[in-house]
């Protein structure tokens, strides 16, 4: 039970990944989560380093990943109250997740452990009734991944994202069909406008970077930037200004979007496809690896673009070495600290999520939006199928972790 309770401080930050039986009131210690050994940012010591991996689409990416790993690492058959709860957790972890279990490692290596004093003392501490605790978990990325300008381990939303211009047909507030179009002009449908300047930037194009979207829309002084001579009595002129003003507020928010670090190295997509991926036999694609190309995916009927039924992901080229701290208070307060290393968890996936900005809105008729992908979360699973099962299916079926335990 204590091994489970030692996770409480981290789980209260990010929310429990799965339902587990929690009881007892033993004191627990905060699990410090670091990346590359850093708890705080070098350039901003007042901020946690793990926030360098977050964006507005989703926070707590690193702590959520740590929590999921700890679900597997702390798995023991005897910490569940009944067979039903145990079997549910087994399904949640799958064979690969269960293989991470320290308890399994200790059982499988009993003969070797009896010949090693450090492993023997760790086993005694881990299985004892003392209030032992996990104290830290670190994600140690490769030296290449730590490089500031490495395109495989950093994602600049403004320059690396590719926007899709989406045209939607609506009836009674509901989208009946949608498609990717080449571009959208801020003057769309407004034919009676006065003359625009030759260098006026009014067009947003599919496949361009988010920066280009910001450049077109961030026009607080649109009257002088767009028009040769703005006519305040012309309804179409006023509508263009209304659009520019409304969208420039959105652009201001996105201007603050920064480059985020990636938890490992990934071949981030650099291309885009204007063709929406259609369902097969009325079934959406549940697992959608990106390869080098971002794509949008259709709903079951093939008429509309959907954002939550296809698991869009990029698998890592490499992940990180996982290092945990474990504290044993000892029998007579002779505290012993252990370092536990997992050296070969070499796969993880970025799940991509869609960000959306409405360019025009209507209850009935044609509406335009732009969407683009950003990192949403990290996952050891690559499909929405069996939602609460097999959370480590990205690892090989015969995966065996390389575990090293030493005293600090």
TrEMBL record:
Superkingdom of the source species: Bacteria
Keywords of this entry: Signal
Signal peptide start and end residues: 1-23
Identification of the protein by name: Uncharacterized protein
Native species: Spiroplasma gladiatoris
